[in-house]
Amino acid sequence: MAEANEGARNALKESLQEAREVMRGRMGQRAPRIGIILGSGLGPLAEQIEDALFIPFGEVPHMKTSTATGHVGRFVAGRLGGAEVLAMQGRLHGYEGNTAQEVAFPVWLLRELGVETLITTNAAGAINESYQVGDFCIMSDHINFTGRNPVVGTDPDGLSMRFFSMLDAYDPALRALAHEVARAEGVRVQEGVYLGLLGPSFETPAEIRAFRAWGADTVAMSVVEEVIAARHVGMRVLGISLVSNMACGVEGANPSDAEVFEVAKRAEDGFCRLVSGIVARMGEAASDGE
Ligand code: HPA
Questions:
Q1: Are 133 and 244 within 8 A, CB to CB?
Q2: 54 Cβ contact partners less than 8 Å away, ≥ 6 residues apart
Q3: Distance between CA 62 and CA 42 in Å, rounded?
Q4: CB-based contacts of 171: which residues, under 8 Å, 6+ apart?
Q5: CA distance 118 to 87
Q6: What is the pLDDT of residues 233-250, one digit of tens each?
Q7: What is the pTM of this model?
Q8: Are the C-beta atoms of 121 and 39 separated by less than 8 Å?
Q9: CA 75 to CA 2: how far, in whole Å?
Q10: 124 Cβ inside 6 Å of ligand 1
Q11: What is the whole-number distance in angstroms between the Cα of residue 119 and the centre of ligand 1?
C-alpha cells in the first residue's frame, strides 16, 4: 500500500515535469508570473492578450481537455495591461468527470512554470439577496462543498506539505487592489464567501437556504479545488465571480446555462477592464520591487 501511494505521488511529479518541459519548449523566453483562469463566458478576455501564443490543453502531456460549453480549452501566453500573463481560456471541472487532481493539474503546472499569483474567475449564482445580476464578487473566502480535495494522496514528499493553512487563502492585499481598480473603472463589485460544489445539477432551493445559513454569498461548480491546489504550492490567489444569476429559489430564480452565458456576454466589457486593470497594477508593483 505504501509503495502504491509513493507511485501515485511520483507519477504526479513526473507528469508535471513532462508537461512543464513541453510548455517551456513552446513558450521560449516568456516567463509570466501571473496566471489567469477564465470561467464560463469570460473567455473573450483572452482576445485582449497581445503577442498571444496559444497552446491547446490537448497538446500538453497529462492535461485533460475541456468539454464544457464556452470553455475553449487552451493556454494563452502574452501581455495584458503591460504585464506578462499565462491565461487558461477555459478550465477543467469535476462535473466533466475529472478527478480533483486532474482539475488541479494546470494550477500546479502554472506554478512549475514560475507563476506566483493566480487570478481565478467564474460565473456564479447569488445567494445573497442584496447582490444584483451583473455584479462582480471578489471572493473573501470559500466553502468547499465538492466533497473532494486535490491534495489527497500527493504528500508528504510529493509536491509540498500535507497540511497547510487556508487562512487568508484569498489574498487580502489583492482583494483591496481589486476594489481600488473596480472603483477607478466604475465597475460594481461585492465581496463575499463563495461556495463551490461538484454539479452539474443546479442546487435546490432548500440547499440554497442551507448555504445562506452557513454564510455563503455565491455558489458555482468550480474554483475551490484550484484554490486549494494554489495555496498548497504557495501561490497568492485572487478569486472573482460574475454574478450571472440569482441562485435557485432566490427571488423565484430558476437558473439555466443559457442565462449564465447571456449575462456573461453583457458583462464582457466590465470584466475585461477589471481584470486587465488589476493585472496592470500587479505588473507595476512587481517592477517597482525590482
Ligand atoms: N449554481 C451553480 N453554478 C452556477 C450558478 C448557480 O446558480 N450560476 C453559474 N454557475
A1: yes
A2: 74, 75, 76
A3: 25
A4: 117, 236, 237, 238
A5: 9
A6: 999 999 999 999 999 999
A7: 0.95
A8: yes
A9: 35
A10: yes
A11: 19
Which amino acid type is present at position 188?
A: R
Q: What pLDDT digit, counting tens, does each position of 58-102 carry?
A: 999 999 998 877 778 999 999 999 999 999 999 999 999 999 999
In ligand 1, which atom is closest to the CA atom of 126?
A: 7
Cα distances from 254 to residues 67, 80, 125, in angstroms, run 24, 36, 10
Q: Does ligand 1 lie within 6 Å of residue 219's CB atom?
A: yes
CA dist 61 and 39 (Å) reads 22
Among 135, 207, 260, 265, residue to substitute to test ligand 1 (most atoms within 8 Å of Cβ): 260
**With b meaning 16 or more CB within 10 Å and e meaning fewer, what string describes 83-109?**
bbbbbbbbbbbbbbebebbbbbbbbbb
